[in-house]
Amino acid sequence: MNEQHYAAIEAGGTKFRVAVARGRDIVADTTIPTTAPDETLGAAIDFIRSWGDVDAAGIACFGPLDLEPTSPSYGSVTQTPKPGWSNVPVLDAVRSELGIPAAIEVDVGGAALGEWRWGAAQGLRHFIYITVGTGFGAGLFIDGKVHHGMGHPEMGHIALERVPGDDYPGNCPFHGACLEGMAAGPAIGDRWGAPSAELGNRPEVWNLEATYLAQALRTFTYVAAPERILLGGGVMQQDGLIDLVRSKLVNQLNGYTTHDLLRGSVEDYVVAPAFGQDAGLIGAIALAMDAAES
Amino acid sequence: MNEQHYAAIEAGGTKFRVAVARGRDIVADTTIPTTAPDETLGAAIDFIRSWGDVDAAGIACFGPLDLEPTSPSYGSVTQTPKPGWSNVPVLDAVRSELGIPAAIEVDVGGAALGEWRWGAAQGLRHFIYITVGTGFGAGLFIDGKVHHGMGHPEMGHIALERVPGDDYPGNCPFHGACLEGMAAGPAIGDRWGAPSAELGNRPEVWNLEATYLAQALRTFTYVAAPERILLGGGVMQQDGLIDLVRSKLVNQLNGYTTHDLLRGSVEDYVVAPAFGQDAGLIGAIALAMDAAES
Questions:
Q1: What pLDDT is attached to residue A260?
Q2: Closest CA to B179 of B137, B230, B129
Q3: Chain A residue closest to B68 (CA)?
């Protein structure tokens, strides 16, 4: 039984969730609105200090982050439209203020790590963690670790084949009709003129949504050959949506696959994550454990 | 100086190229048409035997292949439309007939390995090797090795955003207007009514081609975050095409990137492979060397 204490920070664009855990069990937690970096990081650190000594800290942070191990700005947010947050050295701030080992990942990478250690991706070598909510986030896990290359994946920004008859222009400020611009929560609301929570009984909404998501899953499958895709987030709470995505994915692949699992049902291939809205925070605990050990 | 002798087989859909190398230098080679498996593999093995003893063999083979290390059919072609070749145990045949260590990869994976060891991807940890010719082939290299997950990547079959005004339906038998169905050599010929070699002076042909290729490179960049993309194959021999792809890729990314290199010119990001039409055979030599050492 792991009796060490860990600080876990899920640093989001609108709020920070901060927790102290004993082993992987959360013993105290709070939520802090994301305002100016000094203010928000300061409040997070004060909360952790108020609890007492912790052994290590983990941060699952909104991106883009500098995650190149040799970079002088490793662990910083890079360029972001979020006012005040460009070039903020999040990892260094936490590490130096608390004086303990700390590790950082992009939010979805952290969530992937937590799902791999304790959740819906245990025992796998390669998988993708996806959350469809106010944005489209995805973490790529390859060969037992979160993958970064030159920068980190930003899968929400791939191009999509438009469904005939859908004339919604997309709402991504960079790409217009990319995946995030067509299929994340705000795009659904914008296209149909109502928040997605109020569109539950309109099958055409979810049919279109599932078509775009299945198309994205087909692309991820052909590019990265994962063993499983975890598909969660607020949008995926819609009843029956995951099943619709599964059946459309099978149609999209159309039997062209290098693995038999993708020929029939894909119930074991496209699954819900185990930790839902807590995946980032649980992932931050996993990051803290890794920091303590390294 | 490596003085061992290696057999290298590039097993293609229309022809096999077979070579014997001393170190990485080819000392004898031949080309065999791809007919029935027994006949073609038999001729390849006879050629190698005729040369004398070799220490190991490498095979860069058309796919799909079973590359799961624990699978009883590891190293076999799986389901292919190519008559007679489904479930042919290519690796086992070569290994048992020659009685030497042997290794196999999908053709593009083998080519990637050769480019990494001796060519245009030396020193990198993550890159993508692409060949655009009679098909669209791509090998994903992650963390110092060819990536397979559940099956292997088949990047040519991702969905594409159609360019307005392009009403070509695509010629992929599985997906119609996927990347391969819209942008590989046969699609170019089919769309414009002439082989691509005769379309050199029609800028609209290459403008459209570059648009689709750039879109694909954008998708690969956002999904896999490679450090470089090697872009070769017969179609890429068109004068100026690689520059056009580069400039359109920068437009497609539109400044949304987690790495500064992708903000400006991408001349060091999208590059021609070093070995051109020999990449598969050179890769097979690299595979043989690895087989000899393991």
A1: 77
A2: B137
A3: A259
CB–CB of A259 and B218 under 8 A?
no
pLDDT in tens, A142-157: 999 999 999 899 999 9
Nearest CA in chain B to A260: B151
Taking only the tens place, the pLDDT of each residue in B128-178 is 999 999 999 999 999 999 999 998 999 999 999 999 999 999 999 999 999
Kindly state the helix (H) or strand (E) to which residue B16 belongs, with its residue range.
strand B15-22
Counting one residue from A and one from B, how many pairs have CB atoms under 8 Å apart? 154
| Best CA proximity match to A160, nearest among A143, A147, A179, A173 | A179
Q: What percentage of chain A carries pLDDT values higher than 70?
A: 99
Residues of A in contact with B147 (CB under 8 A): 142-143, 224-225
pLDDT at B1 over 60: no
Q: CA-to-CA distance for A69 and A72, rounded, in angstroms?
A: 8
Name the residue ranges covered by the structural domains of chain B: 5-107+277-293, 120-273
Judged by CB atoms closer than 8 Å, whether chains meet at A157 and B65 is answered as no
Residue A128: closest CA among chain B residues belongs to which residue? Answer: B223
Interface test with B, best of A150, A168, A220 (most B CBs within 10 A): A150
| Interatomic CA distance for residues B76 and B279, integer angstroms | 22
Q: Give the right CATH number for B120-273 from 3.40.50.800, 3.30.420.40, 3.40.50.2300, 3.40.50.300.
A: 3.30.420.40
Pick the CATH number of A5-107+277-293 from 3.40.50.150, 3.40.630.30, 3.30.420.40, 3.30.390.50: 3.30.420.40
* Residues in chain B closer than 8 A to A263 (CB atoms): none
Tell me the sheet residues that pair with A9. Answer: A18, A59
**Which among B150, B156, B218 is the nearest to A259, CB-wise?**
B150
Nearest CA in chain B to A215: B159
Distance of CA B149 to the CA centre of its chain: 17
| Confidence check: pLDDT of A13 > 70 | yes
